[in-house]
Backbone:
């Protein structure tokens, strides 16, 4: 349990990096950031795939189709929605909406996977869920108050960003449940191999997306300078960093956590991503969070620590 929790923590620290990418290069279209990030991820995965080629050969055609579906929804579509949301609503609001994932995934998994993972008793699980929800509400309220005090805020743009963030939540509710299904159904397969397989599956999708986006911009006379934009060194360096740390290392650590933890509990530990993203966002802002935000963070941490102590109970099947 504790080893799985440590892997989930590292994954959260890595995934938190994706929330600051759109803030560092706001002039780059979200679609370009999405395909650029996963093109870098796919290229990084190639030498890793060569080293792991023997294990990758043992994957069946259905395994590769599953990897393609996972990366299409959980990678490309998710980050397209997230980057678009951050560009429209700033960092904290989408981060808080994504922060509902622990609650959404925990409820979905506890309803869906009780017979496989054991049931986390609702009465013992509820306090942790309430603490996490209260923490998210505190931080969200602080950000909304700041938004209302900004005379230049575009509420329509923020609302559109919020809707896109909910789309990202839908993508990433589906992804960990399906990913955990594959890992649990293949206990003899290495999580590292599966992370690398997803990187390899990402490459052709991202490459096709990059080319299509380039063609669309060319035919529409978009003045954005393709292929690498107005700051090519910054863009390429950021995409490589996010591709390596957030995409590959984050996925690897999450796969290790998914093999060790019940899906409902692992879903709650995605709260680490929210905490990391908030920390990075406030570092970029150059000032510490307020008292209400700190209270929210404390509630989130308390909820996670409570959840770690909850043990799943086996489900008795009627014969």
Residues:
């Amino acid at each position: 349990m504790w080893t799985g929790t440590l892997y989930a923590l590292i994954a959260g620290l890595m995934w938190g990096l994706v929330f600051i990418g759109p803030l560092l290069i706001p002039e780059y279209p979200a679609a370009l950031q999405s395909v650029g990030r996963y093109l870098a991820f796919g290229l990084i995965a190639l030498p890793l795939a060569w080293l792991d080629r023997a294990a990758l050969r043992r994957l069946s055609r259905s395994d590769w189709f599953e990897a393609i579906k996972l990366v299409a929804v959980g990678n490309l579509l998710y980050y397209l929605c997230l980057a678009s949301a951050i560009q429209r609503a700033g960092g904290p609001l989408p981060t808080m909406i994504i922060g509902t994932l622990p609650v959404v995934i925990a409820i979905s998994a506890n309803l869906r996977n009780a017979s496989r993972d054991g049931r986390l008793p609702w009465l013992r699980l509820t306090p942790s869920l309430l603490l996490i929800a209260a923490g998210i509400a505190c931080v969200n309220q602080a950000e909304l108050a700041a938004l209302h005090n900004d005379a230049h805020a575009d509420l329509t743009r923020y609302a559109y960003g919020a809707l896109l963030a909910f789309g990202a939540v839908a993508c990433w509710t589906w992804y960990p449940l399906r990913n955990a299904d594959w890992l649990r159904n293949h206990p003899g397969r290495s999580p590292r191999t599966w992370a690398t397989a997803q990187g390899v599956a990402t490459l052709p999708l991202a490459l096709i997306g990059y080319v299509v986006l380039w063609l669309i911009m060319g035919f529409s006379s978009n003045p954005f300078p393709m292929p690498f934009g107005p700051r090519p060194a910054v863009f390429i360096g950021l995409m490589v960093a996010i591709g390596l740390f957030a995409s590959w290392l984050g996925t690897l650590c999450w796969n290790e956590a998914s093999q060790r933890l019940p899906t409902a509990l692992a879903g709650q530990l995605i709260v680490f991503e929210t905490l990391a993203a908030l920390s990075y966002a406030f570092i970029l802002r150059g000032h510490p969070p307020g008292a209400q935000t700190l209270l929210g963070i404390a509630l989130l941490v308390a909820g996670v620590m409570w959840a770690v102590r909850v043990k799943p109970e086996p489900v008795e099947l009627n014969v």
